[in-house]
Design brief:
The chain is of the alpha/beta class. Helix content is about 40%, strand content about 10%. The chain contains 16 helices and eleven strands. It has a seven-stranded parallel β-sheet with strand order 5-4-1-6-7-8-10, sandwiched between helices. Strands 2-3 form a two-stranded antiparallel ribbon. Helix 12 packs across helix 16 and helix 13 packs antiparallel against helix 14. It starts with 6 loop residues before the first helix and ends in an 11-residue tail after the last helix. The N terminus is likely disordered.
Length: about 425
C-alpha cells in the first residue's frame, strides 16, 4: 500500500521545493577550457624567446594558497602582496605573471594560454631548455609532413579537445621554408578548434626580387613563406595574420661573446645604413593581441589586417645601436667598457657570424642580407610601419614599444664573461 500523504502537506512540500529552488544561487558556469597556443621552432633563438615571453606574461599559475596570478600589461614590476623571497621566486619562475592593472588601463584580465612548443628533436639540450621554461614540448622536425603536424596539434589539445587552438608560426629560416609553413598551416586549419595563426615574416618580404633586393637570398625565403601562408586554408578562412617584423634586437645575443670580448657591435651596416629595429618582446605582445582579438571575433574592430607591420618609428645606425648597448649595460651595472660600432664588409661579417656558437649557415645568410639591405637607399626592407598598425598591434597605444637599450639591459648577463646562451 502506498504511504498516505495529506494533500495539504504535499502542497506545502511542493511550495517549499519551488521556493528553495528559486532562492538557491545558480551554480557557476562551467569553466571554459584554457586556450592552447603552439609556438614553433622553440629550440631556435626567436622561438625560444617567444615561448619564454608567453610563459612569463600570458599564462596563469596558482600559488600554494590557490591565488590566481593573472597576466599584466606591466612587464617587470612585481605588484603582489608577497615577501621578498616569494617575489624573487616568482620573478625567476617561467610562469610568472603579474596582476592586471585594471585601475590604470581599464582592461579586463586577458585570457591565459596553455603554451606548447615544437622542436626539431626533443632529446637535445636545446629542447630540454625549452621544457625547463615550462613549455610542453612536441618534436616536429624540419620538413615534416602535414600528418606529423596534425599529430602534434592533436597532442597539444588532447587534455581538452574543445580548447581553442592558436598558432604562432616562428619560422626556421632555410630554402625549404615554404613547405614547412604549408604543412603546419594546413594541419592547423583542419583542427576542429583552430581559431587563428600569426606567421612571423620580415619587412620587405613583398619586394624580394626587386631591383634593390634581387640578390638578397633571405628575403626570397621570406617571400616564399608568405606565399605559402597566403595560399593556406587558414588564410582562405580569414584565420591567419602575417606579421612582418623589422630586425629583432635579440639577435645580438647570437653575437654576445664577440660584443663582450671586443666591446663592439661588428656587422655589415656600413656608416649610413639604418635599421628600424624591434624587440621580440614586442613581437610577442603584438602576436598575443592578435590572438585575443581573433578569439573575441574583433579583428576588424581593432583594425587588424591579414598583413601587419611592426617596426619602430626611429631609425638607428650602427653608432646609435652601440650607444644603446652602452646605455643598457650601464643601467644593468655590468658595463666595463663603452661599446663602439665597427663596420665590417659583408665577407668579414659572414666570417664573424659563422664563428659564433649556434649560428648556422642559413642564419648567416639572413643576418648578412638584412644588414646589407639596410644600406641600400630605397629598399623596401627600410619601410616604416604605419603608426596606426603599431598602435593596433600594441593594444590601442596604451603600451609603448621597448627601446634598443632595454634589450641590452634585460639580457645583460649574456654580455658578460661566460654569459652565453
Amino acid at each position: 500500500m502506498r504511504p498516505f500523504i495529506p494533500i495539504a502537506l504535499l502542497a506545502g512540500l511542493v511550495l517549499l521545493t519551488i521556493t528553495t529552488a528559486m532562492a538557491a544561487p545558480s551554480p557557476p558556469p562551467a569553466a571554459s577550457p584554457m586556450p592552447v597556443v603552439v609556438i614553433t621552432n622553440a629550440d631556435k633563438l626567436n622561438g625560444y624567446i617567444a615561448a619564454a615571453d608567453f610563459l612569463s606574461h600570458f599564462t596563469a599559475m596558482y600559488s600554494s594558497a590557490s591565488q590566481l596570478f593573472a597576466p599584466s600589461h606591466d612587464d617587470d614590476a612585481v605588484d603582489l602582496d608577497l615577501d621578498l623571497d616569494q617575489q624573487h621566486y616568482l620573478r625567476k619562475s617561467p610562469f610568472f605573471a603579474n596582476k592586471e592593472e585594471e585601475k590604470t588601463t581599464g582592461h579586463p584580465h586577458p585570457p591565459a594560454f596553455a603554451v606548447h612548443c615544437t622542436v626539431d628533436d626533443a632529446t637535445t639540450t636545446f629542447a630540454q631548455r625549452v621544457a625547463d621554461l615550462g613549455c610542453i614540448v612536441h618534436a616536429v622536425p624540419t620538413q615534416s609532413s602535414e600528418e606529423q603536424w596534425h599529430a602534434a596539434f592533436t597532442a597539444a589539445t588532447s587534455s581538452a579537445s574543445d580548447a581553442p587552438l592558436f598558432l604562432v608560426y616562428v619560422p626556421s629560416m632555410h630554402a625549404g621554408i615554404a613547405g614547412d609553413a604549408s604543412a603546419a598551416l594546413a594541419a592547423a586549419a583542419k583542427m576542429p578548434t583552430f581559431t587563428h595563426a600569426v606567421v612571423w615574416s620580415r619587412v620587405g618580404a613583398d619586394s624580394a626580387g626587386s631591383q634593390e633586393m634581387h640578390d638578397l637570398e633571405a628575403f626570397g625565403w621570406y617571400a616564399a613563406l608568405e606565399k605559402a601562408a597566403v595560399a593556406s586554408l587558414a588564410a582562405e578562412s580569414g584565420r591567419m595574420t602575417v606579421l612582418r617584423l623589422a630586425f629583432a634586437l635579440e639577435r645580438f645575443l647570437d653575437l654576445a661573446a664577440d660584443i663582450e670580448d671586443m666591446a663592439a657591435l661588428r656587422f655589415n651596416l656600413g656608416d649610413k645604413g639604418v635599421l628600424f629595429p624591434i624587440t621580440l618582446h614586442d613581437a610577442v605582445w603584438a602576436s598575443r593581441n592578435v590572438l585575443v582579438y581573433a578569439s573575441e571575433k574583433s579583428l576588424d574592430e581593432h583594425r587588424i589586417k591579414s598583413v601587419m607591420h611592426l617596426t619602430t618609428q626611429q631609425p638607428h645606425t650602427g653608432q646609435s645601436l652601440a650607444q644603446a648597448a652602452t646605455d643598457g649595460l650601464k643601467r644593468a651595472g655590468v658595463l666595463t667598457r663603452p661599446i663602439r660600432y665597427e663596420p665590417l664588409s659583408r665577407d668579414q661579417a659572414e666570417q664573424l657570424f659563422m664563428s659564433q656558437e649556434n649560428v648556422t649557415p642559413d642564419l648567416v645568410t639572413v643576418l648578412a642580407d638584412v644588414f646589407e639591405c639596410a644600406t641600400r637607399p630605397g629598399a623596401a626592407c627600410q619601410q616604416v610601419a604605419p603608426i596606426e598598425e603599431v598602435k593596433a598591434l600594441m593594444g590601442g597605444g596604451d603600451r609603448a614599444m621597448r627601446d634598443p637599450a632595454w634589450v641590452f639591459e634585460r639580457y645583460a648577463e649574456y654580455f658578460t664573461p661566460g654569459g652565453l646562451l
